[in-house]
């Protein structure tokens, strides 16, 4: 699974996490997967960087990044998580927690250590994460 931060860093060479994101994603054998909300968030951050945004679209078209649709089926769970983590969880974070509940063995690539070290899935376990060093 992948959060917006590593995707933005992967596509923007000037990002401070670019080297970590690029190398981490490069060595993965399986396609990345994420939610619609994370792609929207990534697109928002890349909107001023047309080549990077174009490359994001190409990665989606090629299947290197796969979208796992959560809506409308998991909207209530996303809302519950936002309620459980007031002032911390946004829609994107909540969607990734739900995705982790659906794919509990998957590891999330994220730079958001502050929040994902706090979040818990419905089973009480932390979302397995890989953070930059």
Structure, briefly:
The chain is mostly helical. 51% of the residues lie in helices and 8% in strands.
Distance between the termini: 18 Å
Secondary structure class reads mainly alpha
CATH topology: Rossmann fold
Q: Give the CA-based shape.
A: globular
Average predicted local confidence, pLDDT: 97
- Total beta strand runs: 4
> Which strands sit side by side, in order, in the main sheet?
1-2
Q: Strand content of the residues, in percent? A: 5-15%
The number of helices is: 7
Describe the largest sheet.
Answer: 2 strands, parallel
Low-confidence stretches: none
CATH class: Alpha Beta
Describe the structure.
By secondary structure, this protein is mainly alpha-helical. The chain has one domain: Rossmann fold. Helices cover 51% and strands 8% of the residues. The protein has a two-stranded parallel sheet with strand order 1-2. Helix 7 links the parallel strand 3 and strand 4.
Quickly list its features.
51% helix, 133 residues, Rossmann fold, 4 strands, globular
Question: How do the helices and strands line up, and which of them pair or pack?
Answer:
Elements: H1 4-11, H2 18-27, E1 32-34, H3 36-46, H4 50-62, E2 65-67, H5 75-84, H6 91-102, E3 108-109, H7 113-116, E4 129-130
Helix pairs in contact: 1-2, 1-3, 5-6
């Amino acid at each position: 699974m992948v959060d917006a931060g590593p995707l933005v860093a992967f596509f923007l060479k000037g990002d401070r996490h670019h080297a970590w994101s690029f190398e981490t994603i490069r060595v993965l054998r399986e396609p990345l997967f994420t939610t619609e909300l994370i792609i929207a968030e990534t697109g928002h951050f890349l909107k001023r960087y047309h080549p990077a945004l174009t490359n994001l679209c190409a990665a989606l078209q090629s299947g290197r990044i796969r979208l796992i649709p959560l809506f409308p089926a998991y909207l209530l769970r996303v809302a519950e998580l936002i309620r459980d983590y007031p002032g911390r969880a946004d829609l994107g974070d909540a969607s990734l927690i739900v995705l982790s509940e659906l794919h509990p063995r998957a590891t999330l690539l994220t730079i958001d250590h502050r929040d994902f070290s706090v979040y818990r899935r419905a089973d009480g376990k932390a979302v397995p994460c890989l953070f930059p060093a």
